[in-house]
Design a protein that fits this description.
Bound molecules: zinc ion
Number of strands: 6
Distance between the termini: 23 Å
Strand content: 5-15%
Number of domains: 1
Length: about 130
Amino acid sequence: MRVNYSTTEVPAGYKCTECGATNCKLWREYGFFSKILLLCADCSAKSQNKDIGDIDADGKYTSDILGPGLRTNLIGFRMPAIPTEAGDAYWSCTSVPQPAMEWWRRLPTRATGTSNALGDQHWGTGRILPD
Ligand SMILES: [Zn+2]
């Protein structure tokens, strides 16, 4: 399924592994893995033991490791999960095109309404592009 960066539509399987949240910003592990574990903001924070209490619409919160007052969209070892237009891969952190970054920023930081937990471990499909 192709991703249209001018919409807020997400590719199939773009869902939090833990709580099933979808149609919102998701994070993936930093690095290259054959399986991509997608988590929402809150599940990412829990898994990384981070306080994202002041996370905003851009997915940024006050960092506990950068300088005072600096904000980041990295949650511990998790970074924004930004699919390619073809929807079968994720951009590496240094190669994200501007329209793709804007698409992710436009997604709600948290899912609205209720979502269903998937029950079984759910893995996102695809691969991460090399730099
Ligand atoms: Zn979640």
